[in-house]
Amino acid sequence: MQAYKVSLEFDRVLEAIAVYAKTEPGRKMLLNISDCAGEDEIARRFALVNDIRFLASYDSRIYFDNLEDYRDNVRKLKIEGYFIEPALLYKLAQSLSTMTEIRSVVFKHQQKYRVLWDFVKGIPSFKNIYSEVFRAIEPDGAVRDEASPKLAAIRREISSLMSKVQSKLKELINKIKERSQMPQDYVTIREGRFVIPLPSSLQDRVKGIIHDYSQSRSTVFVEPLSIMGENNKLRELKESEAAEISRIISALNELMRPEVNTIISSFYVSFQLDMYCAVAAFAASKNCENVKVSMEGELEIINGRHPLLTEGAVPLNLKITSEQHILLLSGPNAGGKTVLLKTIGLFCLMVKAGIPVPADPSSVIPYMDKIFVDIGDSQSIAANLSTFSGHIKFLAFMVSQIKNPERTLVLLDELGSGSAPNYSSAIACAIMWHLAEMKVRSIITTHFAGVVNYAYSLPNAINGSLEFDVKNLRPTYRLLMGVPGASYAIHIAKNYGLQSFIINKAKQFLDDSELKYEQLISELITYSAGLKSNMQKIEGELKNVEKIEASLTEREAKFNKTRDEIE
Fold it and tell me: What is the reported pTM?
C-alpha cells in the first residue's frame, strides 16, 4: 500500500472492514481493494453495496458457509489425466452448492436489486454437479454404495462372501479348541486375506499358508486351504470395487472438467461479493452513506465522522467552495487538526474505492487522482534526515509531481515545522503561494502567525480553526471557518501548574501585538460560540412556533369542517 494511504490510516480502515469478511480471499481482496476509474464506477459500487444492505435488512442475507478457495485445484483439471480426490471433491461440491445458493437468493429478488443481480448472474447453477458428488461421496471422502448400481452389487457380494469366510473360519477355530488349547480365537486379516492366529505348536494341525508371525514368533497367522478359493474371490471383488470407484471418481471429475473456466470465474465473483458484503456490513455499523462525488474538486462534509472513532465524536462540518482552494487551520495542539486532515483524506480514499463514508448523503467528496500527505515526523535515521530535512524533501517531491492541479489534494500537517520559526514560516508561505497559484485543493495546519496572516492576502485561501473552550481549556473539536486559531500556550501552561512568575516573565518576551492578536482571536471565538448558542435557541423557538402554527391550522380546518356540516 502506498505510503500516503498508510499515513491517512486507510490500511486500518480496510482492516476494520475486513473483520466482516467471511472468506479469506474476500478479506485479501478487501485489503487490496482497487481504486475506481471514475465517477461511473464509484456509482456502480455504491449501488451494489446499497443493494446488499437493503437485501440484508429487508429480504434475505447472503451466506458464504463452506465457501473455500479451490481455484488452483479446479484449474489443474485442464491438465489431461489430473483428478481431484474424493474428499476434496466433496468440499469443492459444498462450495459449488454455496455459490448456487447465492445466485438463488439474489435471483428471487432480481427485480428489486438489479445491480446486485447484474453482479452475480454470471454464476450459474451447479446443482447437476454438486448433487452428483453428494450422491456418490461421503463428507470424509468415502465413496457411497449408491454411487452406482454396479458398486452396490459388488459390495453386497463382498459382504456376503466375507460373512461366509468368517463363519467357516470360526467353525474351524471351534474344532481346534475342542482338541487343543487356543489362547487366541479370532479371525483377522493379513495381506488382504482372512487368516486365523495359531500357536506355533499347533500350526501343523491346519493345512494352509503362513502369512505372518507375532513379534515373539509364538503365534503364526495361517490362511487355511479350505478358504483359499473364497479369499481369491474376495481379492478379485476388491479389485473390481477399486476399479469401479476409480471409474466413479473419474466420471465426477469429467463432469466438472468442461466447466473449469465457469467455476473459476464464479469463485472470483463470489469472493468479490464477500468483499462488498463486508463493506455493506461495515457501512451499516457506522451509518455510512453514498455521498455525492465531485469531479471538479468541490468539497462539502456534513456531519462527517472519522471512520475509526467511536460513537460520540464531534461531527465535522466543512465546506470549501469552488473559489476556495486552501484551508489553513491553526490553533493549539491536541485540538483535532490532524484528525480533521485524516478524515478528509480518508473520505477521498474511501469514495475513490467505492466505499460509503460516515457522513450525510448530501455531502460532496472530490475524486482525486493524486493525494500528497505529510503528516507526522518525517525524520529518517536510515536516510540521515532530520525532521526538517524530511519535510523539505517531501515538499520538493510534491511540487515536482503536481501535474493536474484540479485533481490533486494536498494535506500538510505543521507546514514548515522543524527549523527556526522565521525561516520555516517563510518556506511555508512560499509553498502556500505556489499551491494557491496552481489552484490545488489543500488543507494545511500551522502554528505560525506569519503563515496565518499571509493566508489573508491570498484570494483563494481561507483561515479556519477548531474551537477551543478558553474557560475550561479544552478543545470542542468544532470547526470554525474564517476564524484563525490561537495557540493558548500561556493559558495552557498556567493551567498545568507552571509558576506564575514564569508565566509573567514569558509575557514580557511577547510583543504587545502578539498578545492583542491572541486576545482578539479568543474574543472572536467566544463571540462565535455565543452566536451559535443564540442561533440554536432561535431555531428551537422557531420549531415551537411552527408546531403551534400547525396545531392552529389543524384546529381551524376542523372548525371550518364542523361549521360546514351545521350549515
Answer: 0.79
494: CB partners within 8 A, 6+ apart: 500, 503
Q: Is the dihedral of CA 390, 394, 399, 401 positive or negative?
A: positive
CB 493 within 8 A of CB 504: no
- Quickly list DSSP for 27-94: HHHHHTPPPPSSHHHHHHHHHHHHHHHHIIIII-----TT----HHHHHGGGSTT----HHHHHHHHH
pLDDT-derived band of residue 383, with 50, 70 and 90 as boundaries? very low
CB of 182 closer than 8 Å to CB of 198: yes
Domains and CATH numbers, the chain: 3-147+250-285 (1.10.1420.10), 158-230 (no CATH), 292-509 (3.40.50.300)
At 406, give phi and psi (nearest 5°).
-65, -25
pLDDT single digits (tens) 433-479: 999 999 999 999 888 888 888 888 999 999 888 776 666 666 677 88
251: left (phi over 0), alpha (psi -120 to 50) or beta: alpha
Exposed/middle/buried for 479, CB within 10 Å: 0-12, 13-18, 19+?
A: buried
pLDDT interval class at 75 (50, 70, 90): very high
Question: Which of 8, 24, 11, 2 has its CA nearest to residue 275?
Answer: 24
Cell of 491: 493559558
Facing residues of 197 across strands? 221
